[in-house]
Amino acid sequence: MSGWSSSADGLSPQRAIGLGPTVGQVEAGPLGEEVHAAHVVALLALPGMGPARLGRLLSRHGSAERAWQQVAAGVSEAVFGQLGRRGDPVALAAAWQAAAAGVDPRARWQAHRAAGVVVLAKGGYGYPDRLVGDLEPPELLFAQGDIGLLGHPTVALVGTRRASAYGLRLARSWGDALASAGVVVVSGLAAGIDAAAHQGALDGLERSGCTPGPVAVVGTGHDVCYPASSRALWRRVADVGLILSEAPLGTRPEPWRFPARNRIIAALADVVVVVESHERGGSLSTAEEAAARNRVVLAVPGSVYSPASVGTHRLIAEGAGVAVSIEDVLLALGSRRPGSTPQPLPPTAPLGDAVRSGAGPMAEQERNLLDALGWEPTTLDDLVLRTAWSLDTVCAVLNQLQRLNLVTQAGIWLTQRGD
Amino acid sequence: MVSLSIPGEAMLASISSSVLRGVDGVPVTVEVHVAGGLPAFTVVGLPDAACREARDRVRAAVLSSGLRWPQQRITVNLAPSGLPKAGSGLDLPMAIGVLVASGLLDSQRVADVAFLGELGLGGAVRPVAGIVPLVEALAERTVVVAPRCQAEASIVGRHCVRAAPTLAGVLAALEGSAPWAVGPSPLDRADSAAPISSGDLADVRGQPLARRAVEVAAAGGHHLFLVGPPGAGKTMLAQRLVGLLPLLEPSVALETTKIHSAAGERLPIGGLISWAPFRAPHHGASMAALVGGGSSWLRPGEISLASGGVLFLDELAEFTPAVLDALRQPLEEGRIRLARASGSVSFPARFLLVAASNPCPCGNAGTPQPCRCSVAIRRRYRRRLSAPLLDRFDLRLGVQRLDPERLTIGGPEESSEVVAARVAAARELARHRGVGANRDLAGALLERHAVLGSSGRALLTDALRQQRLTARGVDRVRRVARTLADLAGDAGAELRDEHLSLAMYLRAEPEALLGVEP
User: Fold this and answer.
1) Band (B221; pLDDT cuts 50, 70, 90)
2) Which of B397, B409, B501 sits opposite A395 (nearest CB)?
3) Domain assignments of chain B as residue spans, ordered by start
4) Selection from B69, B55, B91 nearest residue B170 by Cα
5) What ipTM, to 2 d.p.?
6) Interface contact B459-A164, CB threshold 8 A
7) Is the pLDDT of residue A46 over 50?
8) What is the CATH number of domain B3-183?
9) Cβ-nearest to B400 among A165, A379, A385
10) What is the CATH code of the structural domain delimited by B201-404+411-513?
């Protein structure tokens, strides 16, 4: 109890206990359970504070306020012995005390509100149902966007950052198809597969305007976009979907945060699909967490020569389901949630079918070029060789097909859209 | 004939010559003053080291030629004295000046004669670099040079070019007691030096898009960026390109020859460079090597040596980014201006840039094989190439390693000769529009000669909306479509859809080619 009256940062007992609105203050401060949340926010901002340490700290001290006072007083090294195996307890106590000096939990809490970040406390309003009975539920979740999205069926599309063209194409097209079927796509906003999955879901939303937006669970604070190159995608997801994080504002990316983030993705998803994973990829940890939570894990097979599919092939060998079409995913989702089998929307191919069957207004040339294109990524040079047409003709017809969205291009690779 | 100098009486000689400044010659008067006093030999008028060392060469050459060296005070002034002089070309005029001033040669004999040459200690007259611009700067009717320079010096065509192998030979010929040496006579322009054997376009098989890109680059002067894994034939394509370019026009040929001459490069037999040059500097090239420079003597760089022809930069991403960004001004203006404390010069640099790069350090990004590079490494590789530089390329395309089976499909491909004829015709069309090549079409000229009809406009609008084309790319696509139409013999101002389509496929976005998301 001597902790907070002699606190190093000079926190007055009144402010430390009360946290209520003081006279003359316009904006209302946190009340009730918000007091708890405000202290957890402050605790989470301490260096090296993860879910496990936070949980032990809270159970030891009974409340977040008490825990915060002990940390700020620097007298709590006795409890650090059980806070984790790594590190020196005395040094950690000193580091925390230094980091806590001068921090006002109330100001921290209000900074989040000012930034448009909603703080969801465990058991409180808006906290996702799927996390309530979880093995390791986050004490707090920081959310930006539409919390209601988590009421829909969810599929996590995850995979490596170093993806092949095959994986990127598949993640994007399945993200699109899942969104079009009314399924929320959950992923981690990392580069590679994650970004492609989100992008696919956004494509679906853009086309129809009424499909659910994607959900992203990130490992950094809401104001720290990682990787920085995903800034535009990040903003878009926050606009039309939902971004969740366990970390308060200002949290930088640290390696240990991503596996912790993966457990939330696994917990939020009804079905986890691993699109591509290297031999020791982070998405394998998502699969493990999902299996521990009794979620369906599906893996997408790839080429046996591709290092980006070694991890997914191992998952299959260990008993994961095989997903070779979007129907596999929807079936798994349907068996998981009886009565809520989503109705796959008709694929966006009526125009393509018209062309392919010859019923549409398209000329024979267009059909012939689609036949020559086949279903594998192909270069323009190959098309010229296969059709034996002049380069000019191939380009003119191909451009027509691209304008109709029947063919997409990535670098030099042309692909027929079949989804 | 030989007037002995009277001791105590000062004698003065004034001989014409020239020195290099950048790629241009500047006339210089070598004044020699011989007068009584302690024997000495001083050179004033801002000579550089090579020029100051001329004293020893000149004295030795005069003595070796069996002539008397005046045991008097000799002062050589190089006028205009404010201009720094570099090189050894003033050896011969200094020696002649000493001979005249000491009375060994009648000053009437050197009236209206200019001299250019380095002297050996034994009296031999040696060639100097940059003889073409040096001779061009001279107003005198007769120019005396080393025999090996005679053909090169004759290119200018205004002068009576004389040559003699030794200082004694020059003296004898000036006095009329011996004939001038007969150097090789300049050959006709057409059969002057054959181009570097660059291979025939018929060897490029199974890559119709790349073949067309090379043809378009040659016809429209469009800069070309090739991205592909090792073994995709990028270098082979670049070499074929130079063989498609037409012979240089006479004025361009002379300018190019001057640059090569000033840089001390070996000129072809006959002297004049009439074929488009091909320069492929290694990616370790320094700023001075690439754009030109140096401390006292500002030497033209690779971009100027490539003027009128092709500059091929292989492994573009391995060049120092600062060096690459220095290319932007010449790409825009066709000249490079170098400023140093000692003064500034401007070199022509109107080259066709062909660049090649791997898609990423391991070479597999954007190919069916998985890339071993992390996203961060690919981004870092991409960042070495600045967006403004990549924007200068009208043609950007990916090339793939060839399957052996593809090499055997289809009939024989067109040879370089057939394609070069089409290129020449297309270049002629561009000349009628008042530009050297379609690359330079801009503003009102582009509006007049690359008209978008309603269907072409719709085609480009769709591509913009689908983000297959950026707004900056529209004009470049129009220019390339114009060249495609010219090559097809279609002189109508309105662009056709097939040419616009093809032009878009010839201009891929660099991010897609380099395997990073934009």
Assistant:
1) very high
2) B501
3) 3-183, 201-404+411-513
4) B91
5) 0.72
6) no
7) yes
8) 3.30.230.10
9) A379
10) 3.40.50.300
